[in-house]
Amino acid sequence: MSDLHGISTISDCMVVQLPKIHHANGNLTVVQHHEQVQFDIARVYYVYDVPAGADRGGHSHKECYELLVAATGSFEVVVDDGFNKRRFSLNRPDQALLIVPGIWRTLHNFSSAAVCLVIDSHRYDENDYVREYEQFMSMVKQK
Hints:
7% helix, single chain, globular, 5-stranded antiparallel β-sheet, mainly beta
């Protein structure tokens, strides 16, 4: 397992414009490997019914790349590489935030009925997670 903690920076996290196909009957956005996503898609899930004031995320991945999409509503994502932090506001279903391995992420300020769609490069593996911020910082400093 390659460990990218201390190598990745917040500059590696970016908003990716997804295609918006407009039609009078409603818009359509498609997410495909090698077009909008530069990794094989292994898992897709969504987070919803987040209570007012609650946060999600609060972890880092060792290998997994993620795309986060505000499928509906809005929320904020703070990415942290151990040295710098950056805040992204997601509120359009045709935009995704790419989060690379080795970056701590926290999701805040969910609007009512917000849905966060997550597209991952890896299947769920608890060993890929760093769930304690102190451990994350220790790993960053070791690089």
